[in-house]
UniProtKB/TrEMBL annotation:
It is found in: Cell inner membrane. The lineage of its organism: Bacteria, Pseudomonadati, Pseudomonadota, Betaproteobacteria, Rhodocyclales. One of its GO terms (cellular component) is plasma membrane. This is TRAP transporter small permease protein. GO terms for molecular function: transmembrane transporter activity. The chain crosses the membrane at residues 21-42, 54-73, 94-115, 135-152. It comes from the Bacteria. The complex comprises the extracytoplasmic solute receptor protein and the two transmembrane proteins. Belongs to the TRAP transporter small permease family.
Length: 176
């Protein structure tokens, strides 16, 4: 069982590293294009009629890949876990956390479903490059699937803690 947790933690680290570098590359591209747009306003050497559609693509991808990275590491903001301390037992706390994960899974599954439908049904093309808008929408089902997998993983760990409340998943995973 310990090897499974170590393997999952190693995969988590690699996935987060990939998502972080995707976000860094997207942010660098956004910064470059915005800077280029400013320079071209003062030194008009080229047309930037394509500016809006590329920026839309980059911002959308940055937001969704960033959200997936935050989801994997439980880094999303919240109001805090103020309910758990009022629950009578350790198992009740894990059941509560399982319910929260289930609600998150339902939300992300709905998001994934509609994002995938949008991706599959769109026939539009962008104006400047005439590329399919599927490229704009692809980041949503990709990141939605990552979030679904991690919600399922988190639910599995909460179920394991309900069965064995003394199980320290984080400690097992971090022992390399």
């Amino acid at each position: 069982m310990k090897n499974f947790f170590v393997m999952v933690a190693g995969f988590d680290r690699k996935l987060v590293w990939i998502l972080e570098w995707i976000c860094i590359a997207l942010f660098a591209a956004i910064t470059f294009i915005l800077t280029l747009n400013i320079v071209v306003r003062f030194v008009p050497v080229m047309s930037m009629h394509w500016f809006d559609e590329i920026l839309e693509l980059l911002y959308g991808a940055l937001i969704f890949y960033g959200a997936a990275a935050v989801w994997v590491v439980h880094g999303h903001f919240s109001i805090g876990d103020w309910i758990s301390k009022h629950l009578p037992s350790v198992r009740a706390r894990f059941v509560y956390r399982l319910i929260v994960e289930l609600a998150s899974l339902v939300f992300i599954a709905i998001f994934f479903w509609y994002a995938f439908e949008l991706l599959m049904k769109t026939e539009e093309q962008t104006t400047a490059f005439a590329m399919s808008k599927k490229w704009l929408y692809a980041c949503m089902p990709i990141t939605g699937s990552i979030m679904i997998l991690y919600s399922l993983k988190n639910m599995y760990f909460e179920l394991a803690r309900i069965v064995n409340p003394d199980l320290q998943v984080e400690e097992l995973a971090n022992e390399d």
